[in-house]
Structures are given as structure tokens and as C-alpha cells.
Amino acid sequence: MTTESTAQDAAPAGGTLPLAGIRVLDLSRLVAGNMLTLLLGDFGADVVKVEDPGTGDALREWKAANGESLFWKVYARNKRSLTLDLRLPEGRALLLRLVEKADVLVESFKFGTLEKMGCGPDQLLARNSKLIIVRISGFGQTGPYRTRPGFGTLIEAMSGFAAKTGFPGHPPVLPNVALADMVAGTYGAFAVVTAVRAREQHGAAGQVVDLSLLEPLISIVGPDAAVYQRTGEIPIRIGSRLQVSAPRNVYHTRDGRFLAVSASMQPMFERLMEAIGKPELIRDRRFRTNSDRIAHVDELDRIIDGFICARTLEENVTFFEAAGITAAPVYDVSQLVADEHILAREVFVDAPDPKLGTIKMHNVTPRLTGTPGQIRTPAPELGEHTAALFAELGIDATGLEELRAQHVI
Predict the structure, then answer these.
(1) How far is CA 409 from the centre of its chain?
(2) Mean pLDDT, the chain, integer
(3) Measured between alpha carbons, how far is 24 from 196 in angstroms, rounded to an integer?
(4) What whole-number distance in Å separates Cα of residue 54 and Cα of residue 59?
(5) Which of 3, 33, 112, 155 has its CA at a distance of 20 to 30 angstroms from the CA of residue 143?
(6) pTM of the model
(7) Burial zone of 56 (CB within 10 Å; 0-12 exposed, 13-18 middle, 19+ buried)
(8) Mean local confidence (pLDDT), 316-333
(9) CB of 59 within 8 A of CB of 75?
(10) Cβ-based neighbours of 163, under 8 Å, separated by 6 or more
(11) According to the model, what pLDDT value does residue 14 have?
């Protein structure tokens, strides 16, 4: 995968990338929409960010301690920026003209906003019957919560995720990443590719993707609803353990670091006990089966921790790797970016940036052997491609000046 990129007015060169030829109008703000269109752009889609003049996507304001908009730099790669004030009739009229040349439109406005602007799905599909419209919201386009604000924090709280995250006797823990948004964005990209496939291979018409943040997150937290239905059990906070298998935890090392161990499968548990010099525990009635180990997990963790805490992290990693035990160090980002495996697979790349020189960011994922994605262009400056995109509509330099004078762009 290359990371070549040049700031240019033309669409990022997609070449033979699998999504080349698909144009996406991204009207969304912040994380979920940008994650969705990042995935599409990485695999060749022409993603056009439609942003407010003067301010742009609010993700630009998510800045690091040094004042740089690194969230934007990473998640707006392979995109172009066009400014357009959709509060003005002239702006909405131009949007409808852009829609005629688009394959996908992504939006994350408050419930009913598109309709109030006269740009609801009916109007958009009347302009382009093959358009795929992705509507991102917190709770979906239907149901009693449809008008509630769509912030990921609310979703992480209500989905059941926070209630089961953290340690016994302590408050629920929200993730310190935009988890609900990122998961929804990933699901949204899958939905777009599915809808494009249906349209191109089976003649399906354009359609609306009702993408809530809530449902994707619920889908990944486990079969909690089934467990509750069948047993009446409600998940409790158990730290780094799992309710369904043991041992699985994070253990202290002698040098103040941490090692994660997962040995829940019976052969792996037996191998672990042999390795730490406790083979008799394999037949101990407290630990014979997975269910036994869950019931006596405190005792089991104390035994494992006693072995691990007597050694440094490096000593533990070397020991467990040699013994074929599933264990790994707990990394912070400084350790992650320096790891030999991460370096060998180019998990992070130094992508060119016209202002900062290079920016380290995650490489294209997932990896396709036949049609891999590519980082082609850096995140755009606000409105960088407005002229080129409106030129496609026949708007020349004079027309652009008129639009600027009217504060439409």
C-alpha cells in the first residue's frame, strides 16, 4: 500500500481501487460519518465533504495538546472539501445539483432537518433515483427517541456497554474513545457497499440507510439479551475478566507493567498450569472445568498473579511465548508504534501532509490482496476543492465570486 498524496483539485486518483467511480457527498459532522467515509475513501470512493463556510466540520476543532487538528488529519484523508451554506436557499439548490452526480449522500443532522430544508429523501431521490442516503442519528429515524440528541456518550450509556464495564463496587465506565461512533461508521460503510452491490448487480433503486449509533453498539456487546431472557442474569462489572470463561485477566509484573493472559480453553488452561509448575491444579475440583474456574476465579487469579508478579514483563513475555501460552503485554501508544510486528506490517504509516510534513496514522484496513486500498491524498483544507467541484456544474470564477459575496460558499 502506498501513502503517496498530493493536494490537488481533481478527485483523488482511484485507479483500479474497488470503489473507484463512486461519489459520496458527506454532509455529516464529527466521528461516525467521517469514519464511514474514511473507509469508503480508502478504497477509492470520491468523498466530497460538504462543510459550512468559515467553520467546517466540527471535527476540525478536536485538537491535540499542541493545537493541531490531528483527528481531522487522520479521518479526513482521501477526501475533498467543498463549502456550502445549506441554511440558504441558494446553498440547498446547489446541493440538489450536486446530488444529481452523486452515488451516496451521508448526513447526521438532527431529526427532521433535511426535510425542513426541502432536501428530504423524497426530494433527493426525485433528483437521483439511484442515490443511497445514509442517515446517521443516535436512536434512528423512528421510535419515541428519534428526536433525542445523537451523542455517542448517551449511546454508550444506554446500550448496556457502560453498565458492564469497570470494576466491582465502582461506577460504570464509559470508553475513552468515540466507540459508538466508530462502530456505527464501520457498519455504515458496510451498508453502503451492500446497497451499491444491490443497485449495480440486482437493479435495486436508491434507498435510505437508517443508521443509528445505538443498534450497532448493542450488536457487539454480546448476547446479553438472550442470557437475560433465558436465565434472568444481568451482567455485572468484573474488571478485565469475562463472565463466560476463565482465566482471563490483566496481571501485574515485577517492573510495574501489565501482562494480559487468556487461557480459557481447556487445553490452554492445562498448558498454563503445567508451565507455571502447578500441574496438580488441572485435576483440582475447583478448576477442572471452565464452569469450575469461573466459580473460583479469585483463587485462580491469585495463583497466576503470584507467578507473573515475580517476573518482569519481558521475562513473562519470553516465558509464555516459549511455553505456547496466549499472553501479551499491555501497551501504551509509545510501545505500540515501536513494536517490531507493528513496524513489519506497516500498521502505521507516515503519510505526507502539506503543512506538517508527515503524520503518523493507521494504514488502510482491512487488507485486500487483490484490490487493496490506498492513502492517496491528505486531509483537505476547508473549501480546498470548491472551485473544481462547482466547475462540474458549469459555475465559473465569476459565478464563484458571486456565491462568495452572497456567503453561500
Answers:
(1) 30
(2) 94
(3) 12
(4) 14
(5) 33
(6) 0.92
(7) buried
(8) 97
(9) yes
(10) 172, 235, 237
(11) 59
What is residue 271's DSSP assignment?
Answer: H
Task: For strands 348-353 and 327-329, give the pairing.
Answer: unpaired
Residues designated as active site:
181
- Alpha-carbon gap, residue 186 to 183, rounded angstroms: 5
Maximum Cα–Cα distance across the chain: 85
Rounded CA gap, 329 and 270, in Å? 21
Question: In this model, does residue 5 exceed pLDDT 60?
Answer: no
* Plot region of 68 (φ>0 → left; ψ -120 to 50 → alpha; else → beta): beta
pLDDT over 60 at 6, yes or no: no
Helices (H), 50-151: 70-75, 89-99, 113-116, 121-127
* Whole-number Å distance between alpha carbons of 60 and 351: 18
C-alpha cell at 78: 482521501
Length of the chain: 409
Cα–Cα dist 114/184, whole Å? 20
| Angle, alpha carbons 173-178-180 (nearest 5°) | 85
The domain segmentation of the chain, as residue ranges, is: 23-220+346-405, 248-336
Could you identify the residue written with the cell 460558499? 409
Contact 327, 316 (CB under 8 A): yes
Q: Which residues, 6+ apart, have CB-to-CB distance to 267 below 8 Å?
A: none
* Residue pair 136/28 in contact by the 8 Å Cβ criterion: yes
pLDDT recorded at residue 264: 86
The half-sphere exposure of 52 on its side-chain side, counting CA atoms within 13 A, is 12
Separation of alpha carbons 258 and 252, rounded Å:
5
- Residue 12: which of 43, 33, 36, 39 has the closest Cα? 43
Q: Which CATH superfamily is domain 23-220+346-405 in?
A: Crotonobetainyl-coa:carnitine coa-transferase; domain 1 (3.40.50.10540)
User: Smallest Cα–Cα separation from 160: which of 99, 104, 227?
Assistant: 227
Identify which of 168, 193, 308, 187 has the alpha carbon closest to the alpha carbon of residue 252: 308
* CA pair distance 100, 104, nearest whole angstrom: 10
Distance CA 78, CA 349 (A): 15
pLDDT classification of 10: cutoffs 50, 70, 90: low
Cα-based angle 163, 166, 172 (whole degrees, multiple of 5) = 40
